[in-house]
Write a structure and sequence with these properties.
Strand order of the largest sheet: 2-3-4-5
Protein name: Tetratricopeptide repeat protein
InterPro entries: TPR-like_helical_dom_sf
Shape: globular
Number of helices: 11
Helix content: 40-55%
Amino acid sequence: MRLSGHCNALSFDRDVARGPYPPQGFVSIAEGALGNGDCFGLYWPLGREADAPFVCEMFHDEGRMELRHSSVQVFSRWLDVNDGDYGEREVEDPGSPTLQLEQARTHVLAGQVEQAIERLRAACTVFPELQPGWALLASQYLRQGQRDAAIDAARSAVLANWAFGIPAPGVLRILRTAPASMDPVIALVQRMGFAFGGAKTNPDYALMQACIDDCWAAGDALTALRLSQNRCYMLAGETVSFQEREGFALSRWQADFAAQCQAVLNDDRRCFGQD
């Protein structure tokens, strides 16, 4: 993971987040931070380590991430127009997947389905963690009667990083009503309850781990990594006693995940450099 360009005015944390929250590949930025753990940061989506990072906002107490700017350069301009603080003045960001999502929503309201799909495909391709984008894309494909395309979009939502949003009910409904499939992710969703927390046991974690193992065995390493980070994201929010019953240790997962990323992506996602 590398950051190109002059960013001397910004102060980056020396340590890259180890996951699952903040997600691995997130580097916090001091400027613009609201405090109490809420801050902006660089973020490289899983599998996009060779690309330029996005700038995302972390809402610490909510355990939630949100895409804010398409590049660190746009973020720097936003800081400048707001006198270096968190402000309400926005700057143009024509490459922003968030902007494309907003434009797609306008097309949907106007009944312009083709235009909405075009915007959504572009946004989700650029930023694959765009949960609301995948959900809206799946629904618009259904609207057109393109069921296979809707299933593919819904599947992508399940694989996107859940720190940016849990898959919406509509996404799960599309996959649960899909024809029986040999695809392990679709089969997983059709068996899971997607109800986390507040219970002494939860079979969903075992189902997810079995799917992860199947993906590794099939050579689908990126899918295995994506499911692993989502499973850990949910497990990390469970009680200590629940984690112990599951045999889950966060530090062990972090070390294993970094090693897997190094082997698969040629980058352990634990450090970044500047050109």
